[in-house]
Amino acid sequence: xxxxxxxxxxxxxxxxxxxxxxxxxxxxxxxxxxxxxxxxxxxxxxxxxxxxxxxxxxxxxxxxxxxxxxxxxxxxxxxxxxxxxxxxxxxxxxxxxxxxxxxxxxxxxxxxxxxxxxxxxxxxxxxxxxxxxxxxxxxxxxxxxxxxxxxxxxxxxxxxxxxxxxxxxxxxxxxxxxxxxxxxxxxxxxxxxxxxxxxxxxxxxxxxxxxxxxxxxxxxxxxxxxxxxxxxxxxxxxxxxxxxxxxxxxxxxxxxxxxxxxxxxxxxxxxxxxxxxxxxxxxxxxxxxxxxxxxxxxxxxxxxxxxxxxxxxxxxxxxxxxxxxxxxxxxxxxxxxxxxxxxxxxxxxxxxxxxxxxxxxxxxxxxxxxxxxxxxxxxxxxxxxxxxxxxxxxxxxxxxxxxxxxxxxxxxxxxxxxxxxxxxxxxxxxxxxxxxxxxxxxxxxxxxxxxxxxxxxxxxxxxxxxxxxxxxxxxxxxxxxxxxxxxxxxxxxxxx
Length: 496
Fold this sequence. Notes:
Strand content: under 5%
Number of strands: 0
Number of domains: 1
Low-confidence stretches: none
Radius of gyration: 23 Å
Structural class: mainly alpha
């Protein structure tokens, strides 16, 4: 089997869990946009943005350090040291968040209750606890087990959200199953509201403990300083890079509501909820990127000494971008259809016009993930920190300045500029330090064609919505088939 096909196979397994994890946003999006008012959905988005940032602090780059040093030192010592360190930081910060939950809730405002913050503390502790055991599964290439565990927890999360956000409220209100109304009202508390979203997440996360019990029992609580010290030095730039990277992805959720122009007739809290709907749809592009990252990181490290690695990495970049350009066209061209399916309340569709820009931004993020291989393999992770921090500055200034002037477009354009600049800087430095023969010319050609199709089709006047759906689906199919004809078959001939 070719190396590219082997990587694709691993990516497919990780993709199952990654895609379902992201699909969770889609499966829950119709529920949340149907049952939550825009300000409530905005509050959920903001809280989970903080969760994402906190998780970076909890793991502080140890996952990547574990991959790097497991092949260079005693793997058992590396596992024990990283797992112990992450467990310790997780316990400390979760305890701190829990103890300060009242003050944190008051600072966040926007209807955030103390118990929501307490649930967040517990969720974060479990996520930190399982981070290194999951990394161990990836290192051992146990992608199927990884996927099955993720799928189990994700499925449980979806079921519990359906139960807490739809079924129990309807029974409590007497819409159906009247015989159960009295029983349900004994334990269901409607005033808890969006708190049930965090309860569902916490209960589902508890499943990780029995499912990863074997890996958890293998942890010997100890830190071998001679092993851990170089790992820590390696990880700290990764940590800063991750923090900056997560801010680049979630920064809009922390800024938009505070600077959204009042003259547009919508409050900042509502605007955050609306934009979050469009942003959640853009994560379709992140499905393949996340799955690819899970598989590619250990793959790149294992091929670091291969003389043919640069050519292999260049081919991987090519097919990665080709695949995601197809995804770009499929989603951007059918925005209206996807919005009708997943955004049940029409008020959430007000920001869908920025979706193509958000998708292109995610595409550039995927390019950056590929380009970043050079500083990870050469142990120059400090450059990743530089790029992430530059991106964070762009994200901060762009959102603060542009949202005031052009509303939703401001945040979308900021994301595109952020990832475009990061990719360019990473490429320019990488070609001097770790030359990889990338050929971007045909890829830019494909991207231009894709953009022309996306915006050109809107110039065609169609009598009915259903005719528009049909024509756009047909164009999507033709574009996909054409790309496969020109690119798909080459994998059999060029990969090795």
